[in-house]
Amino acid sequence: MSRFPVLVSLTLGVAATALTSQAHAQDNLFSDVSLGVGAFVNVAPKYEGSDEYRVRAIPFAFPIFNGRESERSRVTFRGVDDVRLSVFRRGGFDVGPIVGYSFGREESLSSKLGGLGDVDGGLVLGAFGSYNAGSAFADLGVSTQITGGSDNGFLATAGVGYTADIAPRFALTGRTDVEYASSGYMERYFSVTPAQAAASTEGYGVFDADAGIKNVSADLSLEFDATDRLTLRTNAGYSRLLGDAADSPISVDDNQLSGGLGFTFRF
Predict the structure, then answer these.
(1) CA distance 135 to 115
(2) What are the residues whose beta carbons fall under 8 Å from the beta carbon of 108, sequence distance 6 or more?
(3) Where do runs of H (alpha helix) occur along 2-55?
């Protein structure tokens, strides 16, 4: 069984210790907390490697610390399975946990998954670190699904980006990422076992997907502060599957597009 959850637990323990010590500092994380709520409508492939798309509406709620969203938000929403909370901040460095939920993959999503069975979803836990230099930033996050399977593997994502204020109340952010997937993750999402090959309605052959770089991606997002409390956001993204993720018979299209529109309201 993978030792990665143990490493994550140790990292979160260090982050929790740092948070406790910060509670006595002037910039207490919990000194003034408000609530942000909103929703995001997303268009994305039905599953990784699919050439079919679907629309999903995602409601969310998250805390806003110190009474406002600062230039470096304490909470970063990368997706339902990747929500980051900065609990330790020193200079340009941020460290904290990643939490989220993975929906897995349902066989009923596409006829191309017929006979492969469902991939169970579950709770996601991890840790991240980032460095911010003015408007530029770089980060590294590692996460694993801790429920819904015995060997879910892990994902490690490294990225760089830049945020520019292009007009009053408008902020444009561009980022690019590279994602590494462990053998456990690749086995779940891109391998075809002998039993699955025999049951496949598409006639897939046996395929053993190994660990490696899974994809590279680029994302562009635009935020507009309509009022002091209401923020509108839209984004467009592109991801290119690589290695065994691209070679898998399950992957029909290596070019994956996504986009969405949403809002956040602060109480």
Answers:
(1) 48
(2) none
(3) 4-22
